[in-house]
Specification:
The chain contains eight helices and eleven strands. The protein is α/β, with parallel strands linked by helices. It has one domain: Alpha-Beta Barrel (TIM Barrel), CATH 3.20.20.190. The strands form two sheets. The protein has an eight-stranded parallel β-sheet. It has a three-stranded antiparallel β-sheet with strand order 3-4-5. The longest helix has 29 residues. About 8% of the residues have low confidence.
Length: 296
């Protein structure tokens, strides 16, 4: 009888320990910001975000001549991408995108196009399902007015997530999550700031040159935007006639990728906030970003 009581006591103690351990892990997950609790108290501009170049241009929906990625927006976000670079255009009577409307394209509609409503819908679904994630959208190539962009965000029910806070002193990720203002949108539209929640790229971001024909062409020098801007974008992809998975496999791999980012950080005195790559699923993008953020 004493042996039975002792055994039950041991079993109960073990169960409590397992439960406490599990509860702690769940609590850590619930308190994470962009997958890591360590990021919660950092301001938005104190965090590095894995980013995809021409996020909307993925195979096989887009022709291989222009496809910079292997996976759609949903998969990119699921895998951990937190900054999407998207091109959007109003097309009227286009022979390839036959219903006049706003589409995401890359260079030429005949090589692929999707309604922007589909892309924004995927983003909305992810934000709704992942309440502790902060996302960024950058639009560099577009013919839209800020009024047109505002309408498509309204139609996609995304405006509720737009960050409308201070950009001189950015909120922390935890504050953005608590306020449910978890989507930061930059657009290369001259009066983007005229509607709350939208901002002109180069008033806030400074980037590196995006026209690298080989690894030797990579530079950390500032290109677009002002050196005093609070956000730093590193373009890290080879620009040739077509996106090249083989090139991405080389430049996305550590230590090459991380060494370049560290060099740019040291040279500029700025944390690389956004790191644009092609074919993000090739190489070590996420490991490099974790290293910049000092997380595991």
């Amino acid at each position: 009888m004493p042996t039975t009581i002792f055994s039950k006591t041991l079993l109960l103690s073990f169960t409590i320990i397992v439960c406490l351990s599990s509860c702690k892990r769940n609590d850590d997950t619930n308190q994470a910001c962009n997958l890591h609790p360590e990021l919660c108290n950092r301001q938005y501009n104190q965090v590095a975000y894995p980013a995809t170049h021409n996020s909307q241009s993925y195979s096989p929906t887009f022709n291989a001549l222009v496809a910079n990625q292997n996976h759609n927006i949903t998969q990119q976000l699921t895998d951990g991408i937190r900054c999407l670079n998207i091109d959007a255009y109003l097309l009227v009577n286009d022979p390839y995108c036959t219903d006049s409307g706003i589409y995401v394209i890359h260079a030429y509609p005949g090589l692929g196009c999707e309604p922007i409503a589909k892309v924004l819908g995927e983003i909305k679904t992810f934000l709704a399902a992942n309440p502790r994630e902060v996302l960024t959208i950058t639009m560099e190539d577009t013919n839209l007015s800020i009024e047109q962009l505002n309408i498509v965000f309204e139609q996609a029910n995304l405006k509720q997530y737009l960050y409308k806070g201070n950009t001189q002193n950015w909120a922390t990720l935890a504050q953005m999550i608590d306020q449910n203002q978890r989507l930061v949108v930059f657009a290369d539209i001259h009066n983007a700031d005229s509607i709350a929640g939208f901002r002109k790229n180069w008033d806030y971001i400074v980037d590196t040159d995006y026209d690298a024909q080989s690894r030797a062409d990579f530079s950390c020098n500032f290109y677009r935007g002002n050196a005093n801007n609070s956000l730093y974008l590193v373009n890290h992809f080879i620009t040739t006639l077509s996106p090249n998975p083989d090139s991405a496999a080389v430049v996305n791999a550590n230590p090459f990728l991380l060494n370049r980012l560290r060099n740019c950080q040291q040279q500029s005195g700025k944390l690389p906030n956004f790191v644009y790559v092609d074919f993000y699923d090739t190489g070590d993008l996420f490991a490099a970003i974790d290293s910049l953020n000092g997380v595991k």
